Amino acid sequence: MSDTAPAPAQPAPANPTRLQLLVAFTIISVSGFGGVLYWSRRMMVDERKWMTAEEFNEAYALCNFLPGPNIVNFAVVFGRRFGGTAGALLALLGLLGPPVTIVIGCGLLYARFGNIDVLQRIFAAVAAAAAGLTISTTLKMLQPLLKERFGQPHVMAFAAFAAVGIMRWPLYWVLAVLIPLSIAWAWGRGPR
């Protein structure tokens, strides 16, 4: 018999309220210079634990398939899941409201002061930081896939990378082939 008691199980986080959706997506939008995918995953999976890494990847994959900006689609899907239509609208407002306001202000300032040399160097540094965040998020999103036994998801991921990243084929043509092929493959295997 051991003297240590088992650690109590952590309670599952509560679903976000509509106000929490608005606040979370507002924080994501003002944090995400150069893109908000990193901040979305960090907020939803790592900090608030409203989704698992697998759920985030699945929702984001769906949003990649839908027309329009992926992260906007994600805000609508996530907001609708937890807050209905009002939740979707609030998540969308939180995601788009602050950046639109900031960009209009920056656009006015850039029109006036855009030729200043130091400003051009700042833009180059921000672009490098955004590239680093994209690489970091990609590596985090790969983790659930690497835990699985080698199979269809790995083959499809490699095929997409090879076709778009190496052979430079147009993304839409690659998706037009890989999506039906992936569905047919999964359909043929049946339920797991």
Unreliably modeled segments: none
In DSSP terms (H or I, runs of 4 or more residues), the helix count works out at 7
Roughly what is the average pLDDT, rounded to an integer? 87
Strand content: under 5%
Shape by Cα distribution: globular
Give the termini separation.
39 Å
Helix content: over 70%
Computed over alpha carbons, the radius of gyration is 20 Å
SSE order, as H and E? HHHHHHH
Query: What is the subunit organization of this protein?
Result: single chain
Report on the biggest sheet.
none
Helix/strand-derived category reads mainly alpha
Number of strands: 0
Written description of the protein model:
Helix content is 77%, strand content 0%. The protein has 7 helices and no strands. The chain is globular.
